[in-house]
Design a protein that fits this description.
The chain is built from 13 helices and no strands. It has helices spanning 2-15, 23-52, 57-64, 67-100, 106-118, 121-132, 139-144, 153-179, 182-189, 194-223, 226-232, 242-251, 255-289. Helix 8 crosses helix 10 (194-223).
Amino acid sequence: MDANIQISTKPLINNLAVKKDPVFIQWILISIVLVFLSLFLIVPLAAIFVKAFEKGISVYVEAISNPDAIAAIKLTLLIVAITVPVNTIFGVIAAWAISKYQFKGKNLLLTLIDLPFAISPVIAGLIFVLLFGLHGLFGPFLLEHNIKIIFAVPGIVLATLFVTVPFIARELIPIMQNQGTSEEEASIILGASGLKTFFYVTLPNIKWALIYGMILANARAIGEFGAVSVVSGHIRGMTNTMPLHIEILYNEYQFSASFAVASLMSIFAIITLIIKSFIDSKKEDNMFTR
């Protein structure tokens, strides 16, 4: 009886075998993807560099070495240098709390972390204006103590922090949830302190996800426009980041200069993409070796 059942199921198993799409269907789908990427990514990216060097290398060098451009580049890098480490610390703490502990309000905390994904960056900028602007909630106090946040670097830092908050935490939470707490508990039972447990047990397991999240936060911080535009005040040489500087140059019909600065941002994006691809491969290798 059992033998008959086994024999009768073999044709059924063969019929259920996964069938590949015809070759021409595969080529059609691949061609559509390549054409789409070429039209909306590769061609525009190439156009940026063509336009940047349209009037020669001397004009290009002059555009990116202009004092206002240098100030915008320095400010952008400063914002990145502040926001990425702060978000890294917050992301690790938030991921640890959500994945390792059980407490009331965990879902609310997850919702708050995701909030910047749901709110327009412009609205985020307006929120900070309402809080720290001259006529905002804390405006009179800040004015009395001569503290300037809006239309100054602190406002740009706050706005960028807000829009980049989710990236690191959201990369770490699923990884740390899947890992559970058994390794950390074993480490503590063996006498390791909480700090040693983190550095020697937890951190090696999450390092690639952590770096990946930092890269995403870095890319967003460099390219953020909406929230920063609201709180910066567009003061040349002081509160203009690279995206804002590009906008000003373009509005003033300095097209070659604007595309020259845009090409620098594109180079940053390409470098970020290369690092991201490397981290992706490392994450996959780490998943297969565990």
